[in-house]
Amino acid sequence: MSSGTLLAVCRVHELLPTKDSTGVTAIDKRAVEGPVKVHSLGLSGDLQASRKHHGGESKAVYAYSQEDADYWSTELGTGIPPGLFGENLRVTGIPVSEAVIGERWQIGEKTILEVTCPRTPCRNFAARMQQPRWVIRFAEAGRVGTYLRVIRTGSISAGDTVTVLDRPSHGVTVGEAFRGLSLERAELLARAAAGGEVQLSPEIQKTLRTLQAREAAGRLSTSGRPST
């Protein structure tokens, strides 16, 4: 399996005010030195102001790749330091935005994380970046990074090796899930979940239910048409 490097570990620097119901956002994350403990809901010392949208077990950690950050650095004409996008982990050598759902990473000697779902850009992200049409641009580029759940806790540090331990055979990536799954790809993912190959996050489960409902409605509509 492939491997990469953890370039930076980032956690909240300061809570920023927002206009939503939460009132604050923890998107302002900065790289920290030394080992950081990883527990079941994320990094020690970090905070997720709204676990409904940016936290919980299936979104405990958010990772972004240096390669995708370099793309945005060129596009925006400015540096993209670790944590600017609200990520906890900045990695290189692994195609984070095309990681397979259920793929497992070992970071350092002990910590194991599992790829769950893509990041969906929000207005707090747009407010932080202060770029025209930022949510649309970020979505269209498809370089969204990935959320991960914690399989085994431990401590991680910048410079640790990130090793892909396992990659599920269904092959469906977080990038595909973000762009929109075809029915065929959705069925692959559903079969993998039914067979115990992967544990789907609530967000991916919702996506599959929506696709299945749409397909069922389409079949019902077709079956109800008068014959010619």
UniProtKB/TrEMBL annotation:
* A Pfam family the protein falls into: MOSC
Q: Which organism is it from?
A: Arthrobacter jiangjiafuii
Q: Write down the PANTHER family for this protein, in alphabetical order.
A: PROTEIN YIIM
Q: Quote the protein name from its UniProt record.
A: MOSC domain-containing protein
Q: Which InterPro entries match?
A: Benzoxazolinone_Detox_Enz, MoCF_Sase_C, Pyrv_Knase-like_insert_dom_sf
Coiled coil stretches, renumbered: none
- Name the PROSITE patterns for this protein: MOSC
Q: Which GO MF terms does the UniProt record name?
A: catalytic activity; molybdenum ion binding; pyridoxal phosphate binding
Q: Which residues form the MOSC domain?
A: 30-165
